[in-house]
Amino acid sequence: MDRARSHTGTNDRVALAFELFNASVQHWLDLAGIFVFALSGALLGVRKNLDVFGMAVLAEATALGGGLFRDVVIGAVPPAAFADLGYFLTPLVATLLVFFLHPEVERINKAVNFFDAAGLGLFCVVGTTKAYEYGLGLTASGALGLATAAGGGVLRDILAGDPPQLLRWDRDLYAVPAIVGAGAVALLIHAGELTGVTAGGAAALAFVLRLAAMRYHWRAPRAWQRRSTAVGEG
Amino acid sequence: MDRARSHTGTNDRVALAFELFNASVQHWLDLAGIFVFALSGALLGVRKNLDVFGMAVLAEATALGGGLFRDVVIGAVPPAAFADLGYFLTPLVATLLVFFLHPEVERINKAVNFFDAAGLGLFCVVGTTKAYEYGLGLTASGALGLATAAGGGVLRDILAGDPPQLLRWDRDLYAVPAIVGAGAVALLIHAGELTGVTAGGAAALAFVLRLAAMRYHWRAPRAWQRRSTAVGEG
Amino acid sequence: MDRARSHTGTNDRVALAFELFNASVQHWLDLAGIFVFALSGALLGVRKNLDVFGMAVLAEATALGGGLFRDVVIGAVPPAAFADLGYFLTPLVATLLVFFLHPEVERINKAVNFFDAAGLGLFCVVGTTKAYEYGLGLTASGALGLATAAGGGVLRDILAGDPPQLLRWDRDLYAVPAIVGAGAVALLIHAGELTGVTAGGAAALAFVLRLAAMRYHWRAPRAWQRRSTAVGEG
Fold it and tell me: Where is coiled-coil annotated (chains A, B, C) (predicted)?
């Protein structure tokens, strides 16, 4: 806490941005992001045939895992996930919703993906800003922004026994939009231009990129000369 | 440390309970809980055909993983797992025992389950109390009590490459007894009635519930209308 | 930081060793260890058919995961992995190299194993020393030295969906050389004989043991009377 505040004192432009961005609007955006991430966790729980408690664990891990990792790394303890009751309860609400209405939730899978993209954009911006607040460098802050946005999904997949979707080449780009958003925030901080408006623009950029990646099935390249390993491994 | 102490100063009733509960009896109970959790880790190592070092890693992770997670989250560093030599050495003793005598240990599997239930009850109470000591809210403290009790088993299963038993619907209730025990402690703190005796009662409640869940094969419900997903996924 | 410094003040012999060992040579050794660990992560990414971002995630996790775990446990936040830009960028360089040249890198797999053994020796010594610096006991410091050296590989395998190689009985000894190296450092600290030279000796000892384990296919024993479980499980 003291550490965060003293940093805030010395970095007025970040403090300003953080303030603008952290108002009650920010809190509701956070909860919305947590909610849609939790939906994806609870839905995976249904597909994996878990009981309601397993669904709740997946929902909590998906929604809060990325921010928890960031907070532990930057020394913001207790992490926001355990300091704000709403952060903890929102995934439970999402779990109940999926528990009773999951065919309907599956049917609006497109809507879930839409909000998941919004959460991705939001969390990469929030994560980068918070890490910088706590004194990390710009590159490290961007890396933690990516971890905030994508870490929960990785934890979800590991707990469910799936290979993390983030790592699979046959999925539409997920990391790149978050990297672009986090990188944009880092550049804005560097240029002294981070405000609520520009931060929102960075989040929107990541959001639109993710929507485009899903729409046009953008993929990332795999290592060159893949055939050679087929021989090497055979 | 300072943080913990100042909290203790302002929460005399918790301090009292913690003191009562944290005497040498508490230490021996802790070691007993660690020992039985470690047995379950080492036994899984045998079933997974791991060597003696793999068994020791699983034993340590099972016994100490939950408390380690709690301590990192609440900022109690170095965690108890690394601050108390007995906590670290106990899983190694359990590993040696299983290494030389595992058919006998398997045969007393019922006894291991019995002590595992005792460990579950104990750890959910200790975890909730310690998290509250470090300034977390009652709900967050209860969640960390559950994480203390069940986290080690989740880590054990992930390291061994199994889907976490905690999440599987076809296993007898494990999370619910810990949730009840942790919730009871949170209510006792809220009512100002947490003493060594009532804390012991909460641990006993979780213990008995877990024994009953195993005896009567209590299961948790899965999401409603499961059939619909069979169609949806097909 | 303050905590570390005050410990340094009271443990002059460690401070001396740490200083000797932490010069610019140390930094380059660290980067070399990170680089070869990252190569092994990126190569596994190629074998698992991941795209370039998945490769980078595996490379970062393999190279930095062990030290990250150690730093979070001892309270050294932000961890070195996020405080030193070189630590973060080196795995990305390794990823690019593997991305474009992986058949060549595979061909020099023996060289990678050689450097991986060097990284193992180096990291178990650095990890043990740093944990002691932060006030942990000798046994706990040794355990964290082992975690520093082997933790990244465990994280790599879990992310990739493989059972951790560290735990498998059919792989050449990996933990034992690190345990010997970390134990040697702990004994040297206890005897007041830890200097840059003796620390280098401990690293060399672990390095040579790992090379010998690969050369002669040393394995660790599994639990006695394995047959009995075959019956018990059947």
Answer: none
The token pair that represents A233 in the structure block: 């491994």
Residue B86 pLDDT greater than 70, yes or no: yes
C234 in a structural domain: no
Q: Are B120 and B174 in contact (CB under 8 A)?
A: yes
Q: Do the Cβ atoms of B174 and B166 come closer than 8 Å? A: yes
Q: What is the largest CA-CA distance in chain B?
A: 60
C135: left (phi over 0), alpha (psi -120 to 50) or beta: left
Nearest to C158 among A136, A137, A158 (CB): A158
CA A141/CA A148 separation, integer angstroms: 10
Nearest by CB to B55, which of C135, C223, C229? C223
pLDDT in tens, C66-87: 999 999 999 998 999 999 999 9
Burial annotation A52-87 (CB, 10 A radius, 16+ → b, else e): bbbbbbbbbbbbbbbbbbbbbbbbbbbbbbbbbeeb
State whether residue B216 sits within 8 Å of chain C by CB. Answer: no
Question: Is residue A111 a part of any domain in this protein?
Answer: yes
- Per-residue pLDDT tens for C53-69? 999 999 999 999 999 99
Average pLDDT over residues B97-111: 80
A169–C54 CB contact, under 8 Å: yes
Q: What angle do CA B128, B134, B140 make, to 5 degrees?
A: 45
Confidence of residue C2 (pLDDT cuts 50, 70, 90): very low
Q: Does A143 touch chain C (CB under 8 A)?
A: yes
Which positions of chain A have pLDDT values less than 70? Answer: 1-23, 108, 225-234
Nearest CA-CA distance, residue C100 and chain B, Å: 31
Q: What is the 3-state secondary structure (H, E, C) of chain C?
A: CHHHHHHHHHCHHHHHHHHHHCCHHHHHHHHHHHHHHHHHHHHHHHHCCCEHHHHHHHHHHHHHHHHHHHHHHHCCCCCHHHHCHHHHHHHHHHHHHHHHHHHHHHHCHHHHHHHHHHHHHHHHHHHHHHHHHCCCCHHHHHHHHHHHHHHHHHHHHHHHCCCCHHHCCCCCCCHHHHHHHHHHHHHHHHHCCCCHHHHHHHHHHHHHHHHHHHHHCCCCCECCCHHHHHHHHC
pTM of the model: 0.88
Token representation of residue C25: 């040579």
Number of domains in chain B: 1
* pLDDT of res. B15: 52
Cβ contacts of A166 within 8 Å, gap of 6 or more:
A150, A153, A154, A157, A174, A175, C53, C54, C57
What is the ipTM metric for this complex?
Answer: 0.84
Determine contact: C114 vs chain A, CB below 8 A. Answer: no
Distance of CA A209 to the CA centre of its chain: 15
Please enumerate in sequence order all residues whose Cβ is within 8 A of that of B162, keeping only pairs 6 or more positions apart, or say none: A161, B44
Tell me if B158 and A160 make a contact (CB, 8 A cut-off).
no
For chain B, percent of residues with pLDDT exceeding 70: 85
Q: Which tens digit of pLDDT belongs to each residue from A187-217? A: 999 999 998 889 999 999 999 999 999 999 9
Are the C-beta atoms of A149 and A95 separated by less than 8 Å?
no
The answer to whether the Cβ–Cβ distance between B232 and A45 falls below 8 Å is no
Those chains having 3 or more beta-carbon pairs within 8 angstroms of chain B are A, C
Q: Which of B221, B228, B232 sits opposite A52 (nearest CB)?
A: B221
- Give the domain extent around A36: 2-220
Q: Is residue A225 part of a domain?
A: no
By mean pLDDT, which of A109-118, B20-29, B181-190 is the weakest? B20-29
Does residue B228 lie within any of the structural domains?
no
CB of B82 closer than 8 Å to CB of A88: no
